[in-house]
Structure formats: C-alpha cells, structure tokens
Specification:
The protein is of the alpha/beta class. Helix content is 50%, strand content 9%. The protein has helices at residues 32-39, 56-61, 77-84, 110-125, 138-150, 166-171, 202-207, 222-229, 250-254, 257-260, 263-267, 277-324, 327-335, 337-344, 349-381, 392-420, 455-462, 468-493, and strands at residues 5-8, 11-14, 100-101, 105-107, 131-135, 156-158, 179-183, 211-215, 239-246, 273-274, 424-425, 428-429. Strands 3, 4, 5, 6, 7, 8, 9 and 10 form an eight-stranded mixed beta sheet that branches. Strands 1-2 form a two-stranded antiparallel sheet. A two-stranded antiparallel ribbon has the order 11-12. A hairpin with a 2-residue loop joins β11 (424-425) and β12 (428-429). α12 (277-324) runs antiparallel to α15 (349-381), α13 (327-335) crosses α15 (349-381) and α15 (349-381) packs antiparallel against α16 (392-420). The chain is elongated and about 90 Å long.
Length: 494
C-alpha cells in the first residue's frame, strides 16, 4: 500500500511505476487483485479472464511508424535497435547544459541517510534555493514531508493521491524557497521554470544556482536517474543534483550489494557517510549488473513470445475474416451443408451469416483465452526441462505448436457441433446466448513480465548472471542444499 497502489473512495487504484500517476482501469491478474481488495476490506470485484495478451515489444511494433525523442536514448541504444529497429542519433542541445551533478552521498543505514537528507534540505532551504526531491513511493513522500514540517519547512507533495494538482504544484516548484517532494518525478517529463509561474524571481533563483534536485534512491536503470537529474538546468539554466543512497535501500538489498563489497571493507564501514571509493564503485556496478540482467530478460521474453505472437496473428487474421466478410456462412456451408441448407430454408442468408459469425467468434475467443492460460502455465515450468538435458526454448515451441493445433481442432469441432444443434423457434434461431455470452466490459493488465518468477529458472534458461563455473557445478549446489536440509538438525543435536 502507498507503493504499488493506493486506496481511494473504497477502490484499489494502481500506481504507475514509471510516472507515479494513477493507472486508470488497471487490475492485477491471477487473483492478486481480489487478494489486495480483501486485504484492504474493500468490495471485491468480479474476476475476469484474459482474452488476449501481447508483449510490449510486439505491441509497439504494430505501429506503422515508430519514433521518439529523449535525452537518455543513448543509454538504451542497443535495446532500441534490437527490439524496435530504431537507430539512435544524438542532436546537440540548443544551449549547453551547465548543470552540476554532485557525487552521490552513500550511507550504511536508511536512518543515517534520512538524517543527512533532512539536514541537507534544511541547510539549502535557508538560502532560498528551490529544492525538488524525487522519492520512490507515496509512503516515502508522505513520511519525508512530515519530517520536514517538524523542522518548520513547508513543502508541496506530488504523488498518486493528489496527482490532479500536478500542473499547479510543478508550476511553482522553481520559485524561491520552494520545496517539492514528488514520486517518480523522472517519469513526469516536465520542465520546471525558475522563479515559478510568472518567473518574477527568475534572476534571484538563477543567482542562487537554480533548482536543486535530490534523489532519495537509485533506480534499476541509469536512464531513470539521468531523467531525474534532467529536471534541473533545462534550456541552459543553472542547476545542481545529488543522490542520497544507503546500503539498506531496496535496490541494493534485492541485488545483494553486500556480496560485491569485500568482507574486510564491509566489516569496517563507519556509521554515517561512506567515502570509500570501492563502495562507490560497487554501487554503480550494481546498476550495470541489473541493466544487463533486465536486457537479457527482455531478450529471453522476446524469444519465448515470438511463436505466440505468430500464432496470435494467425488467429486474429482468421477472426477478421469471419468478422468482416461472408466467410462465416461459407465455413458452415462447407462443413455442415445439410444443417446449413435446413436453416437457410427458414431464415434469410444475412441472418444466418450473423448466427454463423457469432458462433465462430465466440468459440475462437474462448479457446484462444484458454490456450493463453495453458501456455502460460507451461512456460512457468518449462525451465525444468534443462535438468533432463533438453533445450527449454525448443521444448516450449514444440508444446506451443502442439497445443495450437489441438486448439484449432477444438474450435472446429465445437463450432460444428453447436451449429448442428441449432433449432428454429418462432421463425428465428435460438442461439442460447448464455453459452455464447461475451464480456460486457474489458480492462487492461500491464505486468512486469520477467518470464519466470523463479530466478533459478531464469538462469537455466538464458544463464543470466550465471558464470560458467556455476553452470557446470549446479549438481554439487543441489547436493549441498539437500545436505543442509537433511543433516543440519542432527548436526545441532550432536
């Protein structure tokens, strides 16, 4: 709560992890939405089913033209080229950037970081210099603002709970003495005018060094950090930036920064600020490792979704033919000519074509939805084939082809069977809409699909973050784990 979602007016509203804004009509799949609603004691909405899915890479490639402009494109140049066929070209800025990016301040604990952060804000605020603080979550922004109020500093808070005031808050974020705390400021993509709405005090703010941007956490991608820095010193204005991080931050805990720092150094780190160059080097290294892993995850996802994407195209081409042409009636005329002629003797060809179309579209949608669920379950466990000396990708493709063929057979057989049982009642066909009922509304799931939740599965699929030594010694690792599980209790006794 207050990180991934907020509760407002008795409804769970997701927070977009990239922009910090509310994601409209977005829900979590796999019963997670209902679980969160139960946890927060709000009305549990009806469960839906996934009608279709597509990876973001293939979705973007559906557009006939693709282009974009961002100051951080060079960092992801390889990804733009490999996934989207886009080449990155650097355009020189109209005015040279004079922003000053200060060295990161690194601390052992979150408590030390928070103390230093507040001290820095209090010190700079006394000069009148405007400050923009970029936080990770709604909860963090609220907590930080409460601490600043205790120190007599008034601040504006911009997060998912009040994003309707975003324009007004940002308009005054560059005025004298302004302190603005925001979540995901990097993703909001705005320029902050020095001096505020009317720029009356622009000269005064400029003389103080412009906007001071503070980041309270490092992000998985350096692009996001660069974008946060880019809120200051736009269009040749002065400005400065600095990040405050601790070894207890979520990013460094999740990716085990402590394993990268030599034990001798780790055990002798002082309380307060850390100035050891090795620690600073490893903090930067964590981001490079994570970026490399995320790139490999996307590439692995692309390989596994390629065949599903080709099948999706086949199904939707078939669906379009039935939906917008007379192919539906021709289909049943070919495969069930007797029943087709019997029905045609009682109703018009136009009405019969609509009936045929309704049956085919309903069966296609139902079985395609079921197929996606089935293939998702297979993909979640396919990495175990590696233990049998098989290639998971090849085995997954075999399964996908096999189940796709079975799905098409089921669509055909059930459609013909249903068509053959149709009867004429009071001069029209009784379709039995309860069976062919379609959804009355739809919404979108957007999930951070890393292909496999199990990191071991990821490693065996694409060797992400796995050295050759580990690959060849995994049987010994399994034996050690079993030994610890079986014999550890007895070791304690004796």
């Amino acid at each position: 709560r207050d990180v991934d979602y907020i509760v407002r007016n008795g409804v769970i509203e997701q927070v977009d992890e990239f922009t910090g804004r509310i994601a409209d009509k977005r829900r979590w799949p796999n019963e997670l939405q209902a679980a969160i609603e139960a946890k927060e004691h709000v009305a549990i909405r009806k469960k839906g089913r996934i009608l279709n899915s597509i990876s973001l890479q293939y979705f973007i490639c559906l557009y006939p033209k693709k282009c974009g402009m961002t100051a951080t494109a060079r960092v992801s140049e390889e990804e733009f080229r490999d996934f989207y066929g886009l080449h990155t070209v650097i355009i020189k800025p109209h005015k040279k950037s004079i922003r000053v990016d200060e060295d990161d301040k690194i601390f052992c604990t979150k408590k030390d970081k928070k103390k230093a952060l507040i001290s820095e804000i209090v010190k700079v605020h006394k000069t009148g210099k405007p400050i923009l603080v970029g936080t990770r979550s709604v909860a963090e922004s609220i907590e930080l603002s409460a601490e600043l109020i205790k120190h007599g500093i008034k601040c504006s808070v911009l997060n998912a709970k009040n994003d309707e005031y975003e324009a007004d808050i940002i308009a005054d974020a560059g005025k004298l003495n302004a302190v603005t705390i925001s979540t995901n400021m990097a993703g909001r993509g705005v320029d902050i005018r020095l001096g505020g709405k009317n720029e009356n005090n622009k000269k005064a703010v400029t003389s103080l060094g412009g906007l001071y941007v503070i980041g309270t956490n490092k992000h998985e991608s350096k692009r996001i950090d660069y974008q946060l820095r880019g809120r200051a010193a736009r269009q040749g204005d002065p400005g400065s930036t600095r990040f405050f991080v601790s070894l207890e931050d979520d990013l460094f805990i999740r990716y085990r920064l402590s394993d990268l720092i030599p034990p001798k150094i780790l055990s002798t780190l002082p309380s307060g600020e850390i100035k050891n160059p090795i620690v600073k080097k490893e903090v930067d290294r964590v981001q490079r490792i994570v970026e490399g892993q995320n790139y490999e995850i996307k590439r692995t996802l692309s390989r596994y979704t390629y065949i599903i994407e080709q099948q999706r195209k086949i199904m939707y081409d078939k669906r379009k033919n039935f939906c917008f042409n007379d192919h539906s009636s021709q289909y049943f005329e070919k495969h069930s000519s007797g029943q087709y002629q019997k029905l045609l003797d009682n109703i018009s060809s136009k009405e019969l074509n609509e009936v045929c179309k309704t049956i085919l579209l309903a069966k296609i949608d139902f079985h395609w939805s079921y197929y996606l669920q089935k293939i998702s379950d297979i993909r979640d466990g396919i990495h175990l084939r590696r233990f049998g000396g098989q290639d998971p990708l090849f085995e997954f493709q075999k399964c996908a082809i096999n189940y796709f063929e079975k799905m098409n057979e089921s669509i055909h057989n059930e459609s013909i069977q249903y068509f053959n049982f149709l009867k004429i009642i009071n001069g029209s066909i009784d379709l039995g809409y309860n069976i062919l009922k379609t959804p009355s509304s739809t919404w979108t799931y957007l999930i951070n699909d890393k292909t496999f939740d199990d990191i071991l599965g990821l490693q065996f699929l694409s060797n992400i973050g796995l050295s050759l030594g580990v690959i060849f010694t995994w049987p010994f690792m399994v034996l050690i784990a079993l030994y610890k599980k079986i014999f550890k209790p007895y070791v304690k006794v004796f």
